[in-house]
Amino acid sequence: MENYDVYEYDVLIIGSGGAGLRAAIAAREAGCKVGVVCKSLLGKAHTVMAEGGVAAALANMTNPDGSKEADSWKVHFVDTMKGGAFLNNWRIVEIFAKEAPQRVLELEQYGAVFDRTPEGLIAERPFGGHKYRRLNHVGDRTGLEIIRTLQDKAVGVGINVHMEVTCTRLLKNADRVVGVLGYYRESGRYIVLKAKAVVLATGGWGRMFKYTSNSWEGTGDGLMMAYEAGAELLDMEMIQFHPTGMVWPPGMRGILVTEGVRGEGGVLRNKKGERFMFNPDYMPPLYKGQFADTEEEGARWLEDKQNNRRPPELLPRDVVARAIYREVEAGNGSEHGGVYLDVTHRGAEYIKRKLPSMYEQFHAMGGVDITKEPMEVYPTIHYTMGGIRVEPESCATTVPGLFAAGEVAAGLHGANRLGGNSLSDIIVFGKRAGEAAAAFAASAKQGEIDDTQIEEEQNYLMSPLLSASGENPYTIHQELQENMQKNAMIARTEAGLLEALEKIQELQKRAEHLHVDGDRFFNPGWHAARDIRFMLKTSEVIVRCALERKESRGAQWRLDYREMDNADWGKKNLIASKQEDRVQITAVPLQEMPEELKKLFEEVK
Amino acid sequence: MSNITLRVYRGNSSGGQMVSYEVPKAPGMVVLDAIHYIQKNLDTTLACRWNCKAAKCGSCSAEIDGKPRLMCKTSVEDYPEGVITVGPVRAFPILKDLVTDVSWNFRIASKIPPLQVREEAAGKPFVLQQVDVDRVQEFRKCIECFLCQDVCHVIREHNRKDAFFGPRQMVRIAGLEMHPMDDLNRREQLRAEAGVGMCNITKCCTEVCPEHIHITDNAIIPMKERVVDDYFDPVSGLLRTLGVLPKRTKKPFKSVPNEQTVIVGNTTLAAK
């Protein structure tokens, strides 16, 4: 076994996006010694890429008659459950909708500077699936504002930050998690972070797909570390295809185009110029009658939201993504295989003020002036609703000493996430996870580290460098991406998923014999060798769950089971866990919603 | 399709050299795409940082043909000769290839206290007009690419990291100093340890800012004026004593209450 550096904390946070940083602040304020691990530099996590806004029912917006929009946690609750096709954990959603407004206002106290209404309050914009204007925003760079605010606050309360450390294995003592093994990306040197409690805030996984808005970090490492440590995974088949990713140029394919474009009045058209979202075939029964029937009403809604209904471009993401997919399949696609998203009618000045980073992104990197021409867009892998199963109140996983918050955790979004709910997720449950981990740490001792676990992981990590020959991890990654894109994307069938599974198993075998050149000093090839094995296992779990769920619901769209099966599948979640070397999948019944919450669906029609 | 030649710096703290790679050109290709092509197909050991690939995270800073730029935002079409030189930012110590040790920026940042809300506004929703936060929002667009730090003479040529926090942190402090709800006298820090006086207004930082923040005109110069006004102008000092000008009301500056923030990196450890 090779030597390693050791650090000891009361609470260790793995991941430094919004959830991790909010957890760090909470644990520190509870009096703990806190360590935070960043896979990249501090402040570069995926939160920074979030654009449109943070959803919280502050009810700041005014109607034309002078009254306030009737938003409340109750409406937010109903919208989120409907958006998630009722697969969500109602208790998690309830906590979320109730606490989101306080958490947003707290950000303001920490230093976040949101856009303002004429009355001087935080400005809120409309978004898909939200009944009222609810996305508190800063132009189209809300995520940057939030991560920078939390970053500044966190270093202000006193924490240790470990930058550019990749964690690869949770260390256990009997049942309990007692720390983690990782390596410094710079030098490859090993590091062991011991802690009385560990919070996983490692975000989602999108890199196994070819076109994704995720960065290199989204490999499922946090998720798989938890899985290997015995944690249960929930709803893993549910992966969000954001309807609007960039299509052209090829290097930009998959990069996100904020839903804020549609929130600010952007319209979708096919190559014939049709506003295809008005096609009644695309309207889910659950939302019938709640959206504008005509383009005229949609246009009036821009100025008068009280007396007109929203245009159907603002249906939930899964609905819009499927419609775009079907338009392109039907031969109505744009030049480069997408559809058109047009916001030019809002005028150059307005667009540059409300959507500055979209303007810049298309102008500098896409060669398109969005104030004059439409954008080309197509669905891109964006977010993972599934993840680690957690307790609603405490974010505790099924493994003692291990907590999870943010995108890596599951339960809030069900089968489909509404835009803006991810940013409120991370601040609501980041705080709760940090507090619960601090409480756990207060009554726990540091656990013993078992060096055999460390040696085993080190050997695993070293094998691609020590092997005389073997496959290039990038080649396997590319084949995995092609496979997942083709067989596990937006439209799924049993035949396709079986093909995907077979291919994954073949790649898993090949990935046992990798070879990379060079040494351990900042060597991307070496990093990729560990990442690909996390990605393959994650992909296997996704595909197995997608095969199991024989219905269409939210992000899971099965061409061979087109109906939503409320009598059976709508009543259960899928749980994946490790049994020996096998992925075990179990269906568990959803918890019955209490009467007072059921009533809300009548109340807020 | 035609090829381009990328000349990329390969090396570490003990030295290195430019190495040429032939990369097939694709429509709309940016320099980061070309670097990724090399990593995947020609040399998997080539080190670079990147995250969002959309100019939002500020990770892929480099010097392209000698100019500090984001690799994700630099089109290969801008170099019609078809030869592009890519090196690491030079104001910070190299670790490997295009990766440098920028941890100093994070250590300096931890010395700046976050917003300290005025008592009457604490714990309540702020009521602020858009015009009153426009300027602060400009500063908060910063993506921490540190290109401004890289090009700043005080840091790059004179290596006075001991005396000047650099343009990035001037923008950060300006965002707090001009925040209508902040109640901390930031000018004390600006004058002393942050060293706002070190800047000689060459505006190089403004030129390289990918977020187009008017660093010099909107952040540094007004703050220089405020510091001069407070500490070096005898007339306004006298007028303040006589009560003609309002007295300073913000709370006296305290350094970050908690000295326990530690940015841990390999370099920090090596120094131990």
Q: What attributes characterize this protein structure?
A:
heterodimer, A: 605 residues, alpha+beta, Flavocytochrome C3, Chain A, domain 1, Methane Monooxygenase Hydroxylase, Chain G, domain 1, 7-stranded mixed β-sheet, 4-stranded antiparallel β-sheet, 18 strands, 35% helix, globular, B: 272 residues, Ubiquitin-like (UB roll), Fumarate Reductase Iron-sulfur Protein, Chain B, domain 2, 2 domains, 5-stranded mixed β-sheet, two-stranded antiparallel sheet, elongated, disordered C terminus
Draw up the topology in text:
The complex is a heterodimer of chains A (605) and B (272).
Chain A: E1 5-14, H1 18-29, E2 34-37, E3 54-55, H2 73-83, H3 90-110, E4 124-125, E5 135-136, H4 142-157, E6 160-162, E7 165-173, E8 176-184, E9 190-200, H5 221-228, E10 233-234, E11 239-246, H6 260-263, E12 267-269, H7 295-301, H8 317-329, E13 339-342, H9 348-354, H10 356-366, E14 375-384, E15 387-388, E16 402-404, H11 421-442, H12 451-466, H13 473-487, H14 494-510, H15 524-548, E17 572-579, E18 582-589, H16 595-598, H17 600-603
Parallel strand pairs in A: 1-2, 1-9, 2-6, 9-16
Antiparallel strand pairs in A: 3-5, 4-5, 7-8, 8-9, 10-15, 10-17, 11-14, 12-13, 13-14, 17-18
Chain B: E1 3-12, E2 15-24, H1 31-42, E3 61-64, E4 67-70, E5 83-87, E6 94-96, E7 99-100, H2 103-109, H3 130-139, H4 147-151, H5 153-156, H6 167-177, H7 187-191, H8 204-208, H9 215-231, H10 234-241, E8 262-264, H11 266-271
Parallel strand pairs in B: 1-5
Antiparallel strand pairs in B: 1-2, 3-4, 3-5, 6-7
Overview of the molecule:
The complex is a heterodimer of chains A (605) and B (272). With 605 residues, chain A is of the alpha+beta class. Among the domains of chain A are: 244-379, Alpha-Beta Complex (Flavocytochrome C3, Chain A, domain 1), CATH 3.90.700; 467-572, Up-down Bundle (Methane Monooxygenase Hydroxylase, Chain G, domain 1). Chain A contains 17 helices and 18 strands. Chain A has helices spanning 18-29, 73-83, 90-110, 142-157, 221-228, 260-263, 295-301, 317-329, 348-354, 356-366, 421-442, 451-466, 473-487, 494-510, 524-548, 595-598, 600-603; strands spanning 5-14, 34-37, 54-55, 124-125, 135-136, 160-162, 165-173, 176-184, 190-200, 233-234, 239-246, 267-269, 339-342, 375-384, 387-388, 402-404, 572-579, 582-589. In chain A, strands 1, 2, 6, 7, 8, 9 and 16 form a 7-stranded mixed beta sheet that branches. A 4-stranded antiparallel beta sheet of chain A has the order 15-10-17-18, with helices on one face. A 4-stranded antiparallel beta sheet of chain A has the order 11-14-13-12, with helices on one face. In chain A, helix 5 packs across helix 15 and helix 9 packs across helix 10. Chain B has 2 domains: 3-100, Ubiquitin-like (UB roll) (Roll), CATH 3.10.20; 103-253, Orthogonal Bundle (Fumarate Reductase Iron-sulfur Protein, Chain B, domain 2), CATH 1.10.1060.10. In chain B, helix 3 (130-139) packs antiparallel against helix 6 and helix 6 packs across helix 9 (215-231). By secondary structure, chain B is α+β, with helices and mostly antiparallel strands. Residues 267-272 of chain B have low confidence and may be disordered. Chain B is 33% helix and 15% strand. The longest helix of chain B has 17 residues, at 215-231. At the A-B interface, helix 3, helix 4, strand 6, helix 10 and helix 13 of A face helix 1, helix 2, helix 3, helix 6 and strand 8 of B. Strand 6 (160-162) of chain A pairs parallel with strand 8 (262-264) of chain B.
